[in-house]
Write a structure and sequence with these properties.
Largest sheet of chain A: 6 strands, mixed, barrel
Helix content of chain A: 55-70%
CATH architecture of chain B: 3-Layer(aba) Sandwich
Order of helices and strands of chain B: EEEHEEHEHHHEHEHEE
Number of helices of chain A: 13
Largest interface: A-B, 23 and 27 residues
Oligomer: heterodimer
Structural class of chain B: alpha/beta
CATH class of chain B: Alpha Beta
Distance between the termini of chain B: 15 Å
Largest sheet of chain B: 6 strands, mixed
Shape of chain A: elongated
Low-confidence stretches of chain A: none
Helix content of chain B: 25-40%
Number of domains of chain A: 2
Strand content of chain A: 15-25%
Low-confidence stretches of chain B: none
Chain lengths: 401, 226
């Protein structure tokens, strides 16, 4: 018997048990669909983050306190870590020719009040360099300037959301707002920017970093945002920063310099793990589907013992019987795999239409992988029942009731 | 002339829970081409076992079996499957047709395992159904056929690959007497055309259709073996 004959025979017998075949396939369909769908969610998240980090601006280096292992980069608050201060940023700018901007950033939260309207939001202390470094534009009024920073003026620039909540459609320029207990004056409103890296640049209030130091009574910076003069000198700028800061920190490298690429790397690693975990969980359902196939094939072999006897009596070799049942389980799983690809693909495409925070992107490798895996599952879990069928003694099989 | 089948000292025993059960205890038998033999005997006498051994469905525990002068005992399972496919035609008491296949497909079945192309299979199976008078029922499943018709489909299946011998195990056992006579007439006709037939039965009337009769009792041949 050639392959086509074998496939035709197994297709015939699967057709005779439509419902059962379908239910068995369902296990594989769901498994394959789950792999494709979950991986597409992981890939969607990756694309989303890539886009978000791209919004950070080019040639940006972020210096944060604390030396973590190569990965990570969060300040864990270890006592031996020296904080980064305003003068660190000033020195970086002054001593490295590769650095265009170096902005000491202080971030805190505070209650913002204006004539009975209240909003709790992030207060970001920056210098005039922050706006060109991050490609932020002003819609109304002006940005924080160097005089504001030097004179520690109590002026602020509002993000769009904050402005809307506090002033509605009214012109806020020159109006007083209270940040905590301190009185500030509005000098500008930001243009819409959207969410970058999980925090909403429209829902912040920018003030001079020197004023923020007083407002929050701390000189510890969240980070120093550095912009190198060009992509070519990015590495040189990084070396300069390391040298400058290590000298100031008694030779210890208790800070971390991250570039956009490195942040992408870190995020990428996290996402890889996430995607692998999701794919792994989905694969379990594929294996369960495979066990379903094995179960139904064992039942099928038992039910058709007599058929096996008859086929052997008219000349079927063990190999013919083995191939017949193996083909059945493989056809089951491959058909299920194709169904799963359709189901998973369609679901992955539909999800972003209904759930707007869940971007998906179908990864072709996951389609291929899920399909091959399902075919392998069919063969693997089909071998045992098929061998059992092939090794039946024809006499015993013929007498089976 | 060399006999078609030569059995010498054939023994068969099964071990059922320790104590070996001897079903055949030394059978010597020769079947010539074109013979029509009826094997008689009470139930448990070993008739069916003998038939299964002749049909290469089963192997003797001991003894010599030459089929067309070829020693069958030394063949592998795969080779026995091929012998069954090319040289044997079985007809069973319970018809043993595949229930979810049409009569035509059932008749085609042996050809499937001898590598005949789909087109030729269909053609030959149809011709064979015509020969047993069932061409008009070719598309029907066994459940839609009468017992007599089912058995004739089974005979068509047995004949499809031009076997050297037809082995029938109580072929009329599940049929009413009328269909039984029909079937036996069919065998008789086949015999006249030169087909070798070995038929197991415990009914005298059925055995009378044969030209030679052998009798088994407790695993030995008491009459008609030579």
């Amino acid at each position: 018997m050639d392959v086509i004959e074998v496939a035709a025979v197994s297709w015939d017998s699967l057709r005779c048990n439509k419902l059962r075949s379908f239910l068995t396939m369902l296990g594989v369909i769901i498994g394959v669909a789950a792999v494709i769908l979950l991986v597409s969610i992981g890939e969607g998240a990756r694309r989303y983050i890539r886009k978000e980090l791209g919004g950070l601006g080019t040639n940006i280096l972020i210096v944060v306190p604390g030396k973590t292992a190569k990965e990570g980069g969060m300040h864990m608050g270890a006592s031996s870590v020296r904080k980064l201060v305003y003068d660190d940023a000033v020195l970086i700018k002054r001593r490295s020719i590769h650095v265009q901007y170096a902005v000491p950033v202080i971030v805190g939260t505070s209650r913002v009040k204006q004539a009975g309207n209240v909003r709790d939001t992030y207060i970001v202390g920056v210098t005039e360099e922050y706006f060109p470094a991050r490609n932020l534009s002003i819609e109304l009024g002006r940005a924080i300037n160097s005089n504001d920073v030097e004179a520690r003026r109590r002026v602020c620039v509002l993000g769009r959301t904050v402005k809307r909540d506090l002033f509605g459609d009214a012109n806020p320029l020159g109006a007083p707002v209270k940040l905590g207990d301190a009185r500030y004056r509005v000098v500008g409103v930001m243009q819409r920017k959207g969410v970058t890296l999980g925090y909403d640049l429209d829902d912040v209030v920018f003030i001079p970093t020197t004023s923020a130091r007083e407002l929050f009574d701390t000189d510890a910076l969240l980070n120093i945002t550095v912009k190198a003069r060009s992509e070519q000198v990015l590495e040189a700028a990084k070396r300069d920063i390391r040298r400058i800061l290590m000298r100031r920190h008694a030779g210890r490298e208790d800070f971390t310099i991250m570039s956009q690429d490195e942040m992408l790397d870190v995020m990428g690693k996290v996402l890889n793990i996430m995607t692998a975990v999701l794919a792994g969980i989905a694969s379990i359902s594929l294996v369960v589907g495979g066990i379903g196939i094995m179960n139904i094939m064992l039942v099928s072999v038992r039910e058709r013992t007599r058929e096996i006897g008859i086929r052997k009596a008219v000349g079927a070799k063990n190999r013919d019987i083995l191939l017949q049942f193996l083909a059945e389980s493989t056809v089951l799983s491959i058909t299920g795999g194709l169904g799963g690809i359709v189901l998973g693909g369609v679901t992955a495409m539909l999800i972003p239409l209904f759930v707007d925070f869940l971007p998906t992107e179908i990864a072709w490798w996951s389609v291929l992988l899920a399909f091959l895996f399902s075919a392998m599952v069919g063969v693997f879990f089909g071998v045992y029942p098929a061998r059992k069928a092939a090794l039946y003694d024809p006499i015993v099989a013929l007498r089976y009731e | 002339m060399e006999p078609l089948i030569h059995l010498q000292g054939i023994r068969k025993s099964y071990s059922l829970g320790g104590a070996p059960l001897e079903v055949l205890r030394g059978i010597d038998l020769q079947v010539q081409r074109g013979e029509f033999i009826a094997v008689m005997g009470p139930s448990g006498s070993g008739k069916s076992t003998l038939l299964n051994i002749i049909g290469c469905l089963d192997r003797p525990t001991e003894g010599l079996y030459l089929l067309e002068g070829m020693d069958v005992g030394s063949r592998t399972d795969e080779e026995l499957a091929e012998i069954r496919n090319r040289k044997m035609g079985f007809v069973f008491q319970s018809f043993n047709l595949l229930p979810r296949m049409s009569a035509l497909k059932n008749v085609e079945l042996p050809l499937l395992y001898s590598g005949v192309s789909a087109g030729e299979r269909k053609e030959r199976a149809y011709a064979m159904l015509e020969r047993v008078g069932l061409a008009h029922r070719a598309g029907h499943n066994p459940s839609e056929l009468s017992g007599g018709e089912q058995q004739r489909v089974a005979i068509a299946r047995a004949l499809i690959n031009r076997p050297v011998i037809i082995l029938a195990d109580e072929p009329t056992g599940n049929l009413d007497s009328r269909s039984g006579i029909d079937i036996m007439e069919t065998f008789k006709a086949l015999h006249r055309e030169g087909t070798t037939i070995v038929l197991v039965t415990h009914e005298r009337v059925v055995a009378d259709y044969a030209e030679r009769m052998i009798t088994l009792k407790d695993g030995v041949c008491t009459d008609g073996c030579y």
